[in-house]
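pipeline/complex-builder :: batch 7 item 3
reading input block
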Amino acid sequence: MIKNLSLLKPNRESLHVYVSLGAAFFILGIADVTFNIFEFFPIWISFFIPLVLCFYGLHLIRIEFSGIKILDILNKNINSNWFNAILSIFAIFLLIKSIPPILDWLFFDATFIGSKKEDCTGDGACWVFINVWFERLMYGLYPINEIWRINAAFIGLILIVGLAFFVSAKIKNYVLIFLIFVYPFIMISLISGGNFGLEWVETNAWGGLALTFIISIFALTFCFPVGLFLALGRRSSYPVIKYASIGFIEFWRGVPLITVLFMASVMFPMFLPEDTYMDKLVRVIIAITLFESAYMAEVVRGGLQALPRGQYDAGKSLGMGYWRMHLLIIMPQALKLVIPGIANTFLALVKDTPLILVVGLLELIGMIDMAKTNPKWLGFAAEGYVFAGFVFWIICYAMSRYSISLERKYKTDR
Amino acid sequence: MKIKNFNLGLGNFLDNNPKLSNFLPQAVTLFAIIFIIGFFTFNAQTNMDTRGIDFGFGFLSQESSFDIQFSLIDYDGSHSYAKAYLVGLLNTLLVSAVGIFFATVLGVIVGISRLSSNYLIAKLAEIYVEIFRNIPLLLQIFFWYFAALRALPLPNEAITFFDVSFLTIKGFFIPKFVWTNFPVVFYSFVAAIVSIVFIYIYGKRKQEATGQRIPVFFISIALLVILPLVASLLGGVSVELETPLLVQQSETIFNFKGGINIIPELMALALALSLYTATFIAECVRAGIMGVGKGQKEAAASIGLTPGQVLKLVIMPQALRIIIPPTTNQYLNLTKNSSLAAAIAYPDLVLVFAGTAMMQTGRAIEIVSITMLTYLSLSIAISIFMNWYNKKIAIKEK
């Protein structure tokens, strides 16, 4: 058996020898990366030893149709040729070098319990910072005693959304209408107060993650219909409406959101009649709505353009007018086509909300900025940003997964 | 069919008068637009009258009297607001160009990696895309600036690269090239590019006429290297390297002098912009390559092209047609997103002009309009170019 053993060309005859030899080399290489066994060599040799060991190991186990299932899967997926083997080795080294320190920082060396900065003694993250500031990060400068109002508003929202999933289709429509046209205003009056014996809370005090949600919900609700009309306007046969829509869309798409927010905060008050005052939050929501509706319009237009002409002709031949044709035939099909695009626009909107920082409204990231400059809590920027990143990541990832499931649900073959 | 009785009286009336039904909606829209613009203008006029401000762009030639931390051109407080605007614009363009370059390189690599047959590589690329795409850009900029780059060492303990570049908390100090007779190099470079264009055209014609291929790529590389080299040897060009030197400013404060300082704001911004935009470019590249039919690849392979030729001559020309339009969109987004610079005080157009200059002059309307128009003209210029390019590369069907 040993006779056929060639060290450069593995073959199937002495499969087990090659596989165990290759695995040994590979494990030795991995062990060298972790524990630096060959430290006694000069640096320029010991640096490449694990690479060479792993490469040779993978070379030895690269035997086609070995009959061992795991080995075949492994060879096919990470070890199909020498180039792929090198890529895999680099990927594994990268993971070995980067994952443990990150996990250490996040969990194993981190401090979770405590109430002061001094409680953080480990080398890892100081989650006490998040713990102490949690209420501020969620609700901003909202009075602590009134926080139940924000909670109630959002719990109500979740309940109604949940309700919409379980009731029959007919009632569902009414629930949705209530959710879109009535509930936002109930929410706002509950949070801002001023009537029903609730204490008035100025919008300056709103903040934290709650503000992110408030702005996103309002802008999402409004930008969708505005975008629909703009998209229809852009495809209108009336030149005035068409060019007005094009001008509007291209204007908002051409400027960065930050300048739009500047416009809303410093320039727009100049355009209002004297003695009228519009709350900054309202101005910001209008600005974000107009900005995102232009993007929404382009997405919807894509769907409208993708529909074959026959659908329009069919609608007209049934004697439908413009609005009825669009409502019953065109829009349902066009919107279905562009679900991913709509989801991307919504995602962009949620990710854009932190920008309101530049006009002095402090949502989650703004609050972290404030917390980290607090003299008692200097030096915890990383923890704050990692936490905020995690929160936003969950929101955005959930949204994109939901859009994919919607896309599958409404997918029809043509 | 819930909406059965939708026809109002007006609808019937309009249907019977086609001319009017064509005219009326447009007239109403036009009137509404004019009314809104008029209303705003009127209000702005009265507001400015009561506050005693007059509208005008005369302030642009006044002395700005503020300094800018980082400038590509010669600038200090004694220059005009117009020059400050130019400094801001150039800084915006600089960070956009750097961001676009790195985002493209990374995006193409990641996009191809996601289609790799190697499971580990494909998975790593996917994880990267999913993480960086779903976190707000502002947060990423803050993270790199306030958390990651703040962990860099002080100048006296700098991380050194080859003894000429130093990475510190105050920025990345790299050596500066000091040229004598620079125009010689520049013109020889231009000459090399022009001759490459001619060789390319000649090579294409020759291939169409005779079928012979000229190694245009290698000739181009050779020209690009040899021509400036020969010219600088003959033209008396010399290069000196001005390396940054550690200077003690006081007992405990050190800093580097000389060379070029890439300030941490620029680094953080470029890093965040490229890492964020690369995820979107990667998705464009992936979609483009997947959009080319499998049959194309198989057909190309079956007529005997090598894998490299398949990629270069069959897959890429078709994939680029799908990749380029959304990718330019991402470039445009990156340029617009570079305005987030204002949040970490990188002196870009927004910070310098819509921030500092507006604070000093108080001319909100003029300054915000100029800033918006600048970005607007940038985007319109790029989209006009893109439309032209799209038309050029579109499949010409008979």
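note: The first strand of chain B starts at residue 159 and ends at 161.
queue -> next item
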